[in-house]
Design brief:
heterodimer; A: about 180 residues; mainly alpha; Four Helix Bundle (Hemerythrin (Met), subunit A); 2 domains; about 0% strand; B: about 100 residues; Helix Hairpins; 3 helices; about 75% helix; elongated
């Protein structure tokens, strides 16, 4: 299959547009010198990823990604950014310049390795049944029949994370405050 | 659509996440890079599911698990960052030297 054949399918043009947007905004996430911009570019990356999921007929996962990540995780991130410093403008010293060459070499090597292995392994294999989405019933049955134990464990992990998060982030009381609270 | 076109985007995202992880000093930015890497893994899982089409949609179920664990990880991570920031007035990893020998 040649590149011209690949380009003749209009779906691949959509893919190219979304993929370019995802990669460009991911690049800005790791290079932006403004913390708030980096978090907002992550929103663009995740929205593009959700669109890619829709192209791969994974509708439920796509909307879960939108709800959980864009709806909740990014809000948490912005909250963390605001509470730790709130610079809201260009922040010098966000990066460690000494680490840049090494990091570039490592990540480039990783990309070449991953891309080479997947090109070797899958060649020009096509996705199967594009356009017939996985229905939510299948996912739900799989989740509470075959994967019921991991499902319960993940629920427990979320509970533990909730309790742990509250305990860690809670301010310790000073001895005076503790005495006052004991007196009430 | 090829399987590889999605795998390559995932590989690019993963490599950029690694770059951010190594180069950033701010802890919140490091957590953002980790999210990028987890997202790349999700793309891979969904792409393999769209390729193999298992009857139980195993790849998609696994990506749902990854999303859940990532949410828990962000919550705990930011709680730790908040606590350290309160004690040391800094969110830079190279200034966390209390446990250095």
């Amino acid at each position: 299959m040649t590149f011209a054949d690949w380009l003749s399918d209009p779906v691949n043009w959509v893919y190219l547009a979304i993929g370019a947007a995802v990669v460009a905004s991911a690049f800005r996430v790791v290079t932006s010198q403004n913390v708030v911009h980096a978090a907002l570019f992550l929103v663009a990356t995740l929205a593009g990823t959700a669109a890619l999921f829709l192209m791969m007929s994974a509708e439920f996962v796509a909307w879960t990604l939108v709800l959980v990540y864009i709806g909740a995780v990014i809000v948490l991130f912005l909250f963390g950014i605001m509470i730790t410093r709130a610079p809201l403008n260009v922040e010098p010293g966000l990066d460690n310049p000494k680490a840049r060459p090494l990091a570039a070499v490592v990540s480039l090597g990783l990309f070449v390795l991953l891309a080479y292995t997947s090109l070797q392994a899958f060649g020009s294999d096509q996705l199967t049944d594009v356009g017939t989405p996985t229905d939510t019933v299948t996912l739900a049955e799989s989740l509470i029949v075959r994967f019921v134990l991991p499902f319960e464990i993940v629920g427990f992990v979320l509970l533990a994370a909730l309790v742990g998060g509250i305990t860690i982030a809670r301010r310790d009381l000073t001895p005076v405050e503790e005495e006052e609270r004991g007196a009430v | 659509m090829l399987v590889n076109q999605f795998l390559i985007v995932a590989a690019l995202l993963f490599a950029m996440g690694t770059y951010g992880l190594l180069v950033r000093r701010n802890t919140v930015m490091i957590l953002l890079s980790v999210e990028l890497m987890l997202n790349a893994v999700n793309i891979n899982l969904v792409a393999f599911e769209a390729y193999l089409r298992t009857s139980e949609a195993i790849g998609q179920v696994f990506s749902l698990f990854v999303i859940t664990i990532a949410a828990a990880e962000v919550g705990i991570g930011l709680a730790i960052v908040l606590m350290i920031f309160r004690n040391r007035q800094s969110a830079n990893v190279d200034e966390y030297n209390l446990m250095k020998f």
